[in-house]
Amino acid sequence: MDEGLLDTLPRNRLNIMSIHQSKGLEFPIVFVDVGSDIKQEHHANAFKRFPNDGGKSCNMEDEIRFCSPLQTPKRSRMDRAFDDLTRLYFVAFSRPQDLLILIGLNSLINEEIPHVATGWSRDRTWHWKDLKDIVMIKEGDI
Fold first, then answer.
1. How far is CA 76 from CA 40, 62, 65, 131, 138, in A?
2. What is the pLDDT of residues 8-61, one digit of tens each?
3. Which of 18, 49, 51, 91 could form an SS bridge with 115, CB 3.0 to 4.6 Å?
4. Region class of 87: left (phi > 0), else alpha (psi between -120 and 50), else beta
5. Please, are residues 113 and 38 in contact by the beta-carbon 8 Å criterion?
6. What is the count of structural domains for the chain?
7. Phi, psi (5° rounding) for residue 46?
């Protein structure tokens, strides 16, 4: 996205973009969907919440690296996948100037489905348990 276009966007509109498109930009309020499509801990969606292996991007890195001076990676495929997710959500969570709203957190209520974006670390420890600034708004609350 051309950042120069943001100055011409009307202020009474909502900008919808991917996390990658938002990199380097800031907004007063940011909504991040961190799991509305994740209803259970299924292996097919693990790559976007809590990787169990390196996934496609690590496969590609590993296949191409031998052609570069980087050679064999020193970090495991799973560590690299976690690093990628952590960087992605860092970009998303650092865009708001005033308020960050996470959408799709039903799994957070039960603390059952680990997700990097909702405070889980690689050792399956949930770090948001005692945070006082988290407010859960359920469907019937609105």
1. 26, 11, 14, 31, 38
2. 666 777 888 999 999 999 988 899 988 776 767 777 778 888 888 888 888 888
3. 49
4. alpha
5. yes
6. 1
7. -60, -35
